[in-house]
Amino acid sequence: MANFVLQLPTSNLRSIPVYASSNGAPPGTASQNGGPVILELPLEKIRRPLMRTRANDPNKVQELMDSIRQIGLQVPIDVLEVDGVYYGFSGCHRYEAHQRLGLPTIRCKIRRGTKETLRHHLR
Q1: In degrees rounded to 5, what are phi and psi of residue 7?
Q2: Per the database record, which ranges form the ParB-like N-terminal domain (predicted)?
Q3: Whose CA is closest to 42, among 113, 102, 119, 112?
Q4: 117 vs 87 pLDDT, higher one
Q5: Global pTM?
């Protein structure tokens, strides 16, 4: 899903949010088929269980920080929601870039899962 703002050069018009989705669901709502949802989540609400197992490339994090400052986050991170708790297993560089920029939230593609799904990711 892509989020962008269409700005027209006329002073009488204001910015109009425009959303595109392959499944027709507006951002922040579940798709009709129960697929992923795109939401902004507070960074502190996302648990990163594999964070201590690898180090991020500092050059890649810096490049992402520069890009996010200029054009915002282009690709949401994948998050698994299990019983109301959010777990992030990908997007490590994007997550760290948001942290280092002091941004309070990050755009996430959220999929619901079970405790069994979570155990599978932790293997």
Answers
A1: -115, 125
A2: 39-118
A3: 102
A4: 87
A5: 0.69
